[in-house]
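Chapter review. Work through the record for Inner membrane protein DUF1819 before attempting the end-of-chapter questions.
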Amino acid sequence: MTAPLYNAEISAGSLMLPESRRVARLMLTHPDSATWFETLKTENILQKKSPATARRQARLIRNRLETLDEEAWGLVADGDQELSLQILLAASVKHSRLLGDFMRDVVAGHLRRYEHTLSPADWEAFLADCTQRDPTVATWSASTRAKLLQVTLRILAEARYVESTRCLRLTPPLLHPGVLRYLNSRSEGATLAILELKP
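Structure tokens for Inner membrane protein DUF1819:
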């Protein structure tokens, strides 16, 4: 059976910079699984009230960061805010084809057509296109689809690709030189094109 192209994992959280910095620092120590879970549980490094929420978000962050290497983890852990956020966006795009395709097909498409504001209707049209490529998307509930939109817009706002989650005017930033250097040195041309909103 063919693996689905898309999944809804991204619904567990946006870029979560403070939490991602803590997880990146932990990952740099190369903890075994016992240390990993003990640190999450006893030290509550994500500072969540619910252990289940902490586990879910830590797993998402770890899965994202594992698409990159230790140098990137260090940039997330200790880089300035713009650098860390853009590295996290690169990791999120690599981890979630849904996010990457939305940025490539919808956000970049708007800019090419000189349309400077996103709308919720864009999301429904995008998911309809995704369903053509992956029929499992049609099985997602209305609440899942709404949550995915909410998280995707929050990611774009955190990375400064839109003004805010309320004002969806596109404001794509220039990429940080550290992000350009890192992605180019790793031959990550496809990821870089998505971040630069190139066709």
